[in-house]
Amino acid sequence: MKNGSYFIPREQIYPFMNPGAMNNEEGLYLFWETNPETAQRILPPPLSLADPKHPIVMAYVVNIREPSFAPWYMEGGIGILCSYGDITGIYFLNLQLSGPGALTGLCSGREFSGLPKKICERIVVERTDHFAHAYIESKGKRIFKVEIDIGSYNDLSMEDFHRDKQKGAQERGSCLLFRSENTRADDGRFMFSAADLVNYDTVTDYLSWEPAKIESIIMEPSLDDPWAELSVVKLLGAAYSINSNRVLDISPIARIEGNDADNLFSYLFTGRWDRSTICTGHQRYGQF
């Protein structure tokens, strides 16, 4: 059997993340209004809610069948529609991954983009005719479970919100993310010394976008993965989609330093790490 090497000539590495693409991903995309006070409390400065009175949550659960950088893997994410200056996009609170390519997807997303990714036990997406369901299991809890009926949205406002999504359409979009730098304070405490707010600029090519009605959403409370914090105030709608998404650029748009950067730790911790890193008593059995 041929052995690899810890040295690879630079020209052979050129295909790495050129581009970083999630091709032929298939699954559910979901939208609902959540509690304004909760949304404001968990959204880090200097971001602002796109609609402070009616904050919109976007979640998805998909099978990424042909990523350009890894074997296939399953992914689910949850975020809030927000803005910085004239840029509107999704601020992701957490993404969960499972499957053969999950670890590569996690490492590349966290290291290069600042995406708050974790590995979970199981993600399922299934469709039969006009019915589809999905769920995410993490640390023995089913943190997200959804059922949809494909045909029309829950709320008519979604018709206008998604009017450009159809077979053959292409859409440009932004995620607003944080990439942090860390150091040790004078007292030895781990801290964020600086952070960049970045525009994760992507384009999506739609092979399909089928409007759907959300029949039910159930989120089990979890200390480590509290998707249930974004409670449903009003169901807006969903879609079942097959699409390909690729990263165009990841560009810094604001520099945050000093105490302002360290204060971001309160907002960024849970999406990336578990409470076992900050408590004295912790143990889990039988997860794998």
What is the mean pLDDT? 95
Number of domains: 1
Name the poorly predicted regions. none
Q: What's the architecture, going by CATH? A: Beta Barrel
Share in helix: 10-25%
Oligomer: single chain
The CATH topology corresponds to: Acetoacetate decarboxylase-like
Name of the level-1 CATH class: Mainly Beta
Number of strand segments: 12
Radius of gyration over all CA atoms, rounded = 19 Å
Separate helix tally: 5
- Major beta sheet, specifics? 12 strands, mixed
Give the distance, in angstroms, between the N- and C-terminal Cα atoms. 30 Å
Category by helix and strand content: mainly beta
CATH superfamily: Acetoacetate decarboxylase-like
InterPro entries: Acetoacetate_decarboxylase, ADC_dom_sf
Protein name: Acetoacetate decarboxylase
GO molecular function: lyase activity
Pfam family, one: ADC
Question: Secondary-structure blueprint of this entry?
Answer:
Elements: E1 21-33, H1 36-42, E2 48-49, E3 56-67, E4 73-84, E5 87-98, H2 102-113, E6 117-119, E7 122-128, E8 131-138, E9 141-150, H3 157-161, E10 170-184, E11 190-218, E12 234-257, H4 258-263, H5 265-272
What does this structure look like?
The protein has 288 residues and is mainly β. The protein has one domain (20-173, 204-251): Acetoacetate decarboxylase-like. It has 5 helices and 12 strands. It has helices at residues 36-42, 102-113, 157-161, 258-263, 265-272; strands at residues 21-33, 48-49, 56-67, 73-84, 87-98, 117-119, 122-128, 131-138, 141-150, 170-184, 190-218, 234-257. Strands 1, 2, 3, 4, 5, 6, 7, 8, 9, 10, 11 and 12 form a 12-stranded mixed β-sheet that branches. It comes from Chlorobium phaeobacteroides (strain DSM 266 / SMG 266 / 2430). GO terms for molecular function: lyase activity. This is Acetoacetate decarboxylase.
